[in-house]
Write a structure and sequence with these properties.
globular; FAD/NAD(P)-binding domain; 21 strands; Enolase-like, domain 1; 3 domains
Length: 463
């Protein structure tokens, strides 16, 4: 006999947890299915541990710019203390607290691998082979996340490369580390391990880092990595990887035939939705691809509107906070409320936690022009405001606005510099709310804070 619930959620990462909790809050019975740790990728192998690894280096970098502190700094960072703190931040890879949270949220935790077996039906197989059959009266939510993409480079898979999981959970600092990639994961982990003592070589096939951001952002992060002693190779690819037996030294042969020898190799070259093997074919969909959804996050091509997908599984926006945003929409829609997701296409904020930090929301200038918007940009340097100088001598950064001239509203903003992630939400509100620049003129920034750069930008615009 199948166990019946109003909602069955497959995947208990941030998106699955939020979707389930939102539905349960509305009085629906919810089964939350997970085969690993409740909390998912972000909690144990991505957002949380990577920031725990990065923060000590950032603090030291800020201290090096603080008069009276930099003169007293001692060399190096206590790597063991950092790794121990990382372990505490991921609850030593135990999910007891998450399970308690789920139970308190009135979610029924079902351990095992969930798989669709037909409309509204889910089979869960536990690690010991036991099987439970679940049936959803209202909805099934797919929140299965994504996995790293390992490119087809000869010898790479046999070399047992690190992905984000090993890159955030390693027990020892590798003496030499090669990083393949130039996105957020690549630059964050390259900088984190460099700050802990690794000799880092970053290999990026593109002409710059952080290719989806404004070009100046990637250029500043590349320079910061080089200043720290990391080697950054742009416009370069790896054509072969050698590591006999998958252990010991790894040799990476580059496109120019140069060989880089390291103790570990980390691959950060994108992610793919984890939708293979979850029974999508039983409801007329194809596995291994993003589940295409409408703005209510319902899977397209499934009769009855009972199947939903949120987070990385639908491929709309592979960021934890946007997955959670979608999950709130899913919970509301299942509960019968009117809701539609649009911020994940229009006002997506993102912070890259390198030093300098890179924070952005909305469209870059290139994307805005590609969309046919009448664009005007305004750019200022963070060192133009007193708050930056007070935070540390010699600290710099850049802020760029992308303005829709016809409507006189902000459609994109990018910040680089110290701790600029904390300034991003004001820009997110401006973009999401389409706040006119003439209204922003009356949002007076406090003195002396870095946020005074908003006033400088408005003045540069002509207000």
């Amino acid at each position: 006999m199948a166990e019946a619930f109003d909602v069955v959620v497959i995947g208990a990462g941030p998106a699955g947890e939020v979707a389930g909790a939102r539905a349960a809050e509305a009085g629906l019975s919810v089964a939350l299915v997970e085969h690993e740790l409740l909390g998912g990728e972000c909690s144990y192998w991505a957002c949380i541990p990577s920031k725990a690894l990065l923060r000590p280096g950032e603090v030291r970098w800020l201290a090096e710019h603080a008069a009276g502190v930099r003169e007293k700094l001692q060399a190096g960072i206590d790597a063991r203390a950092v790794l121990d703190h990382r372990d505490s931040m991921v609850s030593h890879y135990q999910d007891d607290s998450q399970v308690k949270w789920a139970e308190d949220a009135k979610l029924k935790v079902v351990r095992g691998t969930g798989k669709l077996t037909g409309p509204r039906k889910v089979r869960v197989e536990s690690k010991d082979g036991a099987v439970r059959e679940l049936e959803a009266r209202k909805a099934v939510v797919l929140a299965t996340g994504s996995r790293p993409r390992i490119p087809d480079i000869p010898g790479l898979k046999d070399a047992q490369p690190w992905d984000n999981r090993q890159g955030t959970a390693a027990r020892q600092v590798p003496k030499r580390l090669v990083v393949l990639g130039g996105g957020a994961v690549a630059v964050e982990l390259a900088q984190a391990w460099r700050s802990l003592g690794s000799e880092v070589t970053l290999v990026q096939r593109g002409k710059g880092l952080l290719s989806r951001a404004e070009p100046f952002a990637g250029a500043q992060v590349a320079q910061a990595l080089r200043d720290s002693g990391a080697r950054v190779l742009l416009g370069m690819t790896a054509k072969r990887v050698q590591r006999p037996g998958g252990k010991g030294e790894v040799t990476v042969t580059l496109a120019n035939d140069e060989q880089v020898v390291a103790d570990e190799i980390l691959v950060a070259m994108g992610r793919v939705p984890r939708t293979e093997g979850i029974g999508l074919e039983t409801v007329g969909l194809e596995g291994g691809k993003p589940v295409e959804v409408d703005d209510q996050l319902r899977a397209k091509g499934v009769d009855g509107g009972w199947l939903y997908a949120c987070g990385d599984a639908n491929g709309r926006n592979l960021l934890t906070h946007m997955g959670k945003y979608q999950a709130r929409m899913v919970g509301d829609v299942i509960a019968g409320k009117q809701a539609r997701a649009w911020a994940d296409a229009k006002a997506t904020p993102q912070v890259v936690f390198t030093h300098p930090q890179v924070a952005s929301v909305g469209l870059t200038e290139a994307k805005a022009r590609e969309a046919g918007l009448p664009v005007r940009t305004v750019e200022k340097q963070l060192q133009d405001v007193s708050g930056t100088s007070l935070l540390g001598k010699g600290l710099t950064g850049t802020v760029k606005w992308v303005v829709d001239e016809q409507r006189r509203v902000l459609v994109g903003a990018t910040f680089t510099g110290p701790e600029v992630g904390e300034m991003l939400h004001a820009a997110t509100i401006a973009v999401a709310g389409e706040v006119p620049l003439d209204t922003l003129w009356h949002a007076v920034p406090s003195f002396p804070t870095m946020s005074e750069v908003w006033l400088k930008l408005l003045e540069a615009y002509g207000l």
